[in-house]
Amino acid sequence: MGRMRSALPSDLSRMLRFGAVGLLNTALGYTLILAGLALGLGDIVSNAAGYAAGLTLGFFLNRQWTFGRAGGFRPGAVARYAITFVVAYGANLSVVIAAMSAGFIENPFVHLAGNCLYSVIFYVGSARFVFVGGADASDAAKWPGTAT
């Protein structure tokens, strides 16, 4: 029986850079959420401000640092990034709104739970939808079943 190939990219350093950007993105976003809550901005405004800042930072760092060494990104990456964000942020906001409905108002742990779900969805979307293809021919060869 042959050995199965992993569907994960073989470029470990790229994955680590993506993770580092995610940590910076999450730290910035969560810090702004907490600051917004402390300033009395409420759950929704605080959450939106945190994610807007993290989203912007994440796109530019991932575009230039995480994926830039492989030739950048394909045209349409900003639109795909926005779509991926909407899906991930919608999941996050669902957690926050459900918690608010259950009586957890301005609770930082609710935002942390939403942030974790957002991060998982956004990573998968970025890796599989946003920053894929068009980088260089060797990347396509690493992904079974991809056509060039």
Question: Any key phrases for this structure?
Answer:
0% strand; 71% helix; 148 residues; mainly alpha; elongated; 5 helices
Short account of what is shown:
The protein has helices at residues 12-38, 43-66, 77-101, 108-130, 137-142. The chain is elongated, with a radius of gyration of 17 Å.
Describe the structure.
The protein has 148 residues and is mostly helical. Helix content is 71%, strand content 0%. It contains 5 helices and no strands. The longest helix has 27 residues, at 12-38. The radius of gyration is 17 Å and the shape is elongated. 26% of the residues are buried. The model is unreliable at 135-148 (pLDDT under 50).
Could you give the topology of this structure?
Blueprint: H1 12-38, H2 43-66, H3 77-101, H4 108-130, H5 137-142
Helix pairs in contact: 1-2, 1-4, 2-3, 3-4
Number of strands: 0
Report the end-to-end length measured between terminal Cα atoms.
28 Å
Q: What order do the helices and strands follow?
A: HHHHH
What's the number of helices? 5
Radius of gyration: 17 Å
Largest beta-sheet characterization: none
Quaternary structure annotation:
single chain
The amount of beta strand, in percent, is under 5%
Secondary structure class reads mainly alpha
Mean model confidence by pLDDT: 80
Shape assignment? elongated
Q: How much helix, percentage-wise, in residues?
A: over 70%
Spans of at least 5 consecutive residues with low confidence: 135-148
